[in-house]
Amino acid sequence: MSSLPKRIIKETERLVSDPVPGISAIPHDDNLRYFDVAIQGPSGSPYEDGTFKLELYLPDDYPMCAPKVRFLTKIYHPNIDKLGRICLDVLKNNWSPALQIRTILLSIQALLGAPNPDDPLANEVAEEWKSNEALAIATAKSWTEQFAKEGD
Protein backbone atom coordinates (compact mmCIF):
# COMPACT_ATOMS: atom_id res chain seq x y z
CA MET A 1 0.00 0.00 0.00
CA SER A 2 1.36 3.43 -0.89
CA SER A 3 2.05 5.69 2.02
CA LEU A 4 -0.61 8.27 2.59
CA PRO A 5 0.07 11.79 3.80
CA LYS A 6 -0.51 12.14 7.55
CA ARG A 7 -3.22 14.68 6.81
CA ILE A 8 -5.34 12.13 4.93
CA ILE A 9 -4.79 9.50 7.62
CA LYS A 10 -5.84 12.00 10.33
CA GLU A 11 -8.93 13.12 8.43
CA THR A 12 -9.94 9.54 7.72
CA GLU A 13 -9.52 8.54 11.37
CA ARG A 14 -11.61 11.51 12.44
CA LEU A 15 -14.37 10.67 9.94
CA VAL A 16 -14.53 7.21 11.45
CA SER A 17 -14.13 8.11 15.14
CA ASP A 18 -16.23 11.29 15.04
CA PRO A 19 -18.67 10.83 12.18
CA VAL A 20 -20.73 13.72 10.86
CA PRO A 21 -24.45 13.17 11.61
CA GLY A 22 -26.22 11.89 8.51
CA ILE A 23 -22.97 11.37 6.62
CA SER A 24 -20.71 8.38 6.29
CA ALA A 25 -17.43 8.26 4.38
CA ILE A 26 -15.60 4.96 4.24
CA PRO A 27 -12.26 4.59 2.47
CA HIS A 28 -11.76 1.73 0.04
CA ASP A 29 -9.49 -0.98 1.41
CA ASP A 30 -7.43 -1.11 -1.75
CA ASN A 31 -7.12 2.66 -2.24
CA LEU A 32 -7.48 4.88 0.80
CA ARG A 33 -7.85 7.99 -1.37
CA TYR A 34 -11.23 6.71 -2.57
CA PHE A 35 -14.21 6.99 -0.26
CA ASP A 36 -17.70 5.58 -0.49
CA VAL A 37 -19.90 8.32 0.85
CA ALA A 38 -23.53 8.23 1.92
CA ILE A 39 -25.35 11.46 2.72
CA GLN A 40 -28.83 11.54 4.20
CA GLY A 41 -31.14 14.13 2.70
CA PRO A 42 -31.65 16.96 5.19
CA SER A 43 -35.00 16.98 6.97
CA GLY A 44 -37.47 19.47 5.59
CA SER A 45 -35.87 19.24 2.13
CA PRO A 46 -37.25 17.38 -0.90
CA TYR A 47 -34.40 14.90 -0.28
CA GLU A 48 -35.54 14.03 3.23
CA ASP A 49 -35.57 10.26 3.92
CA GLY A 50 -33.23 9.64 0.99
CA THR A 51 -29.70 8.31 1.28
CA PHE A 52 -27.48 9.50 -1.52
CA LYS A 53 -24.37 7.63 -2.51
CA LEU A 54 -21.37 9.61 -3.65
CA GLU A 55 -17.79 8.88 -4.47
CA LEU A 56 -15.03 11.06 -3.16
CA TYR A 57 -11.46 10.93 -4.38
CA LEU A 58 -8.46 12.76 -2.95
CA PRO A 59 -6.07 13.66 -5.78
CA ASP A 60 -2.32 13.42 -5.27
CA ASP A 61 -2.05 17.16 -4.67
CA TYR A 62 -4.74 17.17 -1.96
CA PRO A 63 -5.02 19.31 0.20
CA MET A 64 -3.60 21.89 -2.22
CA CYS A 65 -6.51 21.11 -4.51
CA ALA A 66 -10.07 20.08 -3.75
CA PRO A 67 -11.29 16.49 -3.52
CA LYS A 68 -13.22 15.19 -6.51
CA VAL A 69 -16.76 14.38 -5.45
CA ARG A 70 -19.59 13.01 -7.53
CA PHE A 71 -23.12 11.80 -6.86
CA LEU A 72 -23.67 8.16 -7.82
CA THR A 73 -27.34 8.26 -6.83
CA LYS A 74 -29.54 9.96 -9.41
CA ILE A 75 -30.81 13.25 -8.00
CA TYR A 76 -33.03 16.07 -9.27
CA HIS A 77 -31.18 19.20 -8.15
CA PRO A 78 -30.23 22.42 -9.96
CA ASN A 79 -26.61 22.22 -8.78
CA ILE A 80 -25.98 18.54 -9.61
CA ASP A 81 -25.91 17.35 -13.21
CA LYS A 82 -26.85 14.03 -14.81
CA LEU A 83 -23.27 12.78 -14.37
CA GLY A 84 -23.44 13.52 -10.66
CA ARG A 85 -21.07 16.46 -10.85
CA ILE A 86 -21.66 19.08 -8.20
CA CYS A 87 -21.58 22.84 -8.64
CA LEU A 88 -20.28 24.03 -5.28
CA ASP A 89 -17.89 26.90 -4.71
CA VAL A 90 -15.77 25.04 -2.13
CA LEU A 91 -15.07 22.30 -4.69
CA LYS A 92 -13.89 24.91 -7.19
CA ASN A 93 -12.64 28.46 -6.77
CA ASN A 94 -13.36 28.69 -3.03
CA TRP A 95 -11.35 25.60 -2.13
CA SER A 96 -8.79 26.15 0.60
CA PRO A 97 -6.33 23.64 2.09
CA ALA A 98 -7.82 24.59 5.46
CA LEU A 99 -11.03 22.80 4.44
CA GLN A 100 -11.39 19.10 5.12
CA ILE A 101 -13.30 16.14 3.77
CA ARG A 102 -15.92 16.58 6.48
CA THR A 103 -16.35 20.30 5.65
CA ILE A 104 -16.94 19.41 2.00
CA LEU A 105 -19.46 16.71 2.88
CA LEU A 106 -21.32 19.09 5.20
CA SER A 107 -21.37 21.70 2.40
CA ILE A 108 -22.84 19.13 0.01
CA GLN A 109 -25.45 18.15 2.59
CA ALA A 110 -26.29 21.84 3.07
CA LEU A 111 -26.62 22.24 -0.72
CA LEU A 112 -29.27 19.51 -0.67
CA GLY A 113 -31.17 21.58 1.88
CA ALA A 114 -30.73 24.83 -0.05
CA PRO A 115 -30.64 24.35 -3.83
CA ASN A 116 -29.31 27.39 -5.68
CA PRO A 117 -30.96 27.69 -9.11
CA ASP A 118 -29.04 30.94 -9.72
CA ASP A 119 -25.75 29.05 -10.01
CA PRO A 120 -26.96 25.98 -11.89
CA LEU A 121 -25.19 22.99 -13.31
CA ALA A 122 -28.39 21.33 -14.51
CA ASN A 123 -29.98 24.17 -16.46
CA GLU A 124 -33.38 22.58 -17.13
CA VAL A 125 -33.75 21.70 -13.46
CA ALA A 126 -32.80 25.26 -12.48
CA GLU A 127 -35.28 26.72 -14.98
CA GLU A 128 -38.04 24.58 -13.55
CA TRP A 129 -36.97 25.47 -10.00
CA LYS A 130 -37.37 29.15 -10.89
CA SER A 131 -40.54 28.93 -12.99
CA ASN A 132 -42.43 26.28 -10.99
CA GLU A 133 -40.76 25.57 -7.69
CA ALA A 134 -43.61 23.37 -6.44
CA LEU A 135 -43.28 21.08 -9.45
CA ALA A 136 -39.48 20.98 -9.15
CA ILE A 137 -39.73 20.02 -5.48
CA ALA A 138 -42.33 17.36 -6.27
CA THR A 139 -39.99 15.91 -8.93
CA ALA A 140 -37.06 16.02 -6.50
CA LYS A 141 -39.18 14.17 -3.92
CA SER A 142 -40.28 11.53 -6.39
CA TRP A 143 -36.67 10.97 -7.59
CA THR A 144 -35.59 10.67 -3.96
CA GLU A 145 -38.32 8.09 -3.42
CA GLN A 146 -37.29 6.25 -6.58
CA PHE A 147 -33.50 6.37 -6.43
CA ALA A 148 -32.37 7.20 -2.89
CA LYS A 149 -34.27 4.79 -0.68
CA GLU A 150 -32.24 2.28 1.30
CA GLY A 151 -32.51 -1.31 0.25
CA ASP A 152 -32.92 -0.62 -3.47
Automatic annotation (TrEMBL):
Presence of the UniProt keyword Transmembrane in the record: no
Matching Pfam families: UQ_con (PF00179)
EC number(s) recorded for this UniProt protein: 2.3.2.23
Active-site residues, as the UniProt record annotates them: 87
Keyword entries, A-Z: ATP-binding, Nucleotide-binding, Transferase, Ubl conjugation pathway
Gene Ontology molecular function: any one: ATP binding
Segments traversing the membrane: none
Signal sequence region: none
PROSITE patterns: UBC_1, UBC_2
Residue ranges of domain UBC core in the record: 3-149
Family: Belongs to the ubiquitin-conjugating enzyme family.
PANTHER family (UniProt xref): UBIQUITIN-CONJUGATING ENZYME E2
Name this protein carries in UniProt: E2 ubiquitin-conjugating enzyme
Organism: Babjeviella inositovora NRRL Y-12698
Lineage, uppermost ranks: Eukaryota, Fungi, Dikarya, Ascomycota, Saccharomycotina
